[in-house]
Amino acid sequence: MSGGNEYSADGEDLLIDDIDLSRYLDGEIEQDDRRRIANALESTPGLAHQAQLLRSADIKARQYADGLLESAPPARLCVRHMAAERRSRQRRNFAAIGAFLLTAIVAFGMGWMGHGIFHQQSFIARSFVEDAAATHKVYAVEVLRPVELDAANSAELTGWLSKRVGFPVIVADLTNLVLEYVGGRLLPGRNGAPSAMLMYQDADGRRATLYLGENSGTAPSSFRYFSWDEAATETVYWFDRDIGYGLTGAYERDELNDLAKSVAKAMDGG
Amino acid sequence: MDMAPELSAPDNPMAHVALAETAVAIEGLSLEQRTTLLLVAVEGLTYAEAAAATGVPVGTIMSRLARARRALASRMNAKPALARVK
After folding, report:
1. Residues of chain A with pLDDT under 50
2. Closest C-alpha to A64, from B20, B85, B17
3. Rounded to 5 degrees, what angle do the CA atoms B69, B71, B73 make?
4. Between residues 181 and 240 of chain A, which touch chain B (CB distance below 8 Å)?
5. What's the pLDDT tens digit per position in A148-192?
6. Which residue on chain A is closest to B49 by alpha carbon?
7. B35 vs A contacts (CB less than 8 Å)
8. What is the least distance, in Å, from the CA of A179 to any CA of chain B?
9. Considering only CA atoms, which of B61, B50, B44, B55 is closest in space to residue A3?
10. Strands A224-228, A207-214: parallel, antiparallel or unpaired by DSSP?
11. How far apart are CA A41 and CA A31, in angstroms?
């Protein structure tokens, strides 16, 4: 399958194209290919630069979408309203026009035209992911008090958190994925509802934080991803039975994906 | 070029320019490429979910996404993005 541009990595016989790089960036690639591309990226700076360029497109797309969400209040996200507005305004207001286009394009594709579900869900999900990332940013760097109760007090912590967040908080055992449980803490969540954070750490001191809280109003989802380029961290998030989960850390997407699978399995009762 | 802080400050004239440039670049993509990029990069859909949402095979999602990223990256970067490795 040709992705248009092909590169031959140093020391590799096989060509790597944009599709390969995209799949690698998205974690949608088989283990063998992932290893091959990871090696090539490491040994070929030019290829790493190409991957960075492709990733930069995602950043632009998110900035575009962020600009639309920030500038267009929910009441104005009705397609009919925006269509009328679009007719009456010139291109000086990119946000309004863009909001129409974004809603119309994606809503049409997903069969949701006119329901505004896309933006409502996007907004809730984005807000949740931002909370998960902010939690990671604040606490992952803490040396003395990263958690309120540490792993030695796990039962006390989970009992307390479960009572406050309103659902059973279960600590996933991630030791087979080389992450030790550090502990956790209670946090303010969306609309003032309590949420929780569980922290894990690997032998190099890298930390992953699981942010979880009640999140009604979101449809169940599979694992989704958000890259925080400034901090070189990534969040994998998902919603299940009115609970939102956001696992954040400076890990590759497929590593986070494996961690998230274990967390989801544990929260599901093992 | 990191535009995030500017985009969140609507009174900054440069923010409008930056947003306009990004908007022009994204809206310059084909409908199929734009939809795919927004679904995967912004909405976080998996390839399978994006394929189901748009009614095309996963392979098509892969190629549309790669082309959208390449086209957008090229448009947003002043220097040519197609340097051949090696």
Report:
1. 1-3, 12, 71-101, 103-104, 107-118
2. B20
3. 65
4. 222-226, 230, 237
5. 999 999 999 999 999 999 999 999 999 989 899 999 999 998 778
6. A222
7. 105-106, 109
8. 25
9. B61
10. unpaired
11. 15
Q: Which two tokens stand for residue A63?
A: 């900035």
The CB density around residue B33, as the number of other CB atoms within 10 Å, is 21
Rounded to whole angstroms, what are the CA distances from A60 to A17, A92, A206, B66? 21, 20, 28, 15
Dihedral, A261, A264, A267, A270 alpha carbons, nearest 10: -40
State both tokens at B55.
Answer: 């009614």
Whole-angstrom distance, CA of residue A13 vs CA of residue A222? 36
Paired with A207 in beta bridges are A201
- How many whole angstroms separate alpha carbon A182 and alpha carbon A179? 9
Task: Count Cβ neighbours within 10 Å for each residue of A127-142 and write b for 16 or more, e otherwise.
Answer: ebbebbbebbeebbee
DSSP A67-118: HHHHHS-GGGG-HHHHHHHHHHS-TT-HHHHHHHHHHHHHHHHHT-TTS-HH
* Type of residue found at A117: I
- Contact A61/B at CB under 8 A: yes
Across the interface, do A98 and B23 touch by the CB < 8 Å criterion?
A: yes
Contact A15, A8 (CB under 8 A): yes
Question: In the numeric block, which tokens belong to residue A54?
Answer: 């492709």
A190: Cβ contacts below 8 Å, ≥ 6 apart: A124, A127, A128, A131, A213, A215
Q: Which two tokens stand for residue A146?
A: 């990263």
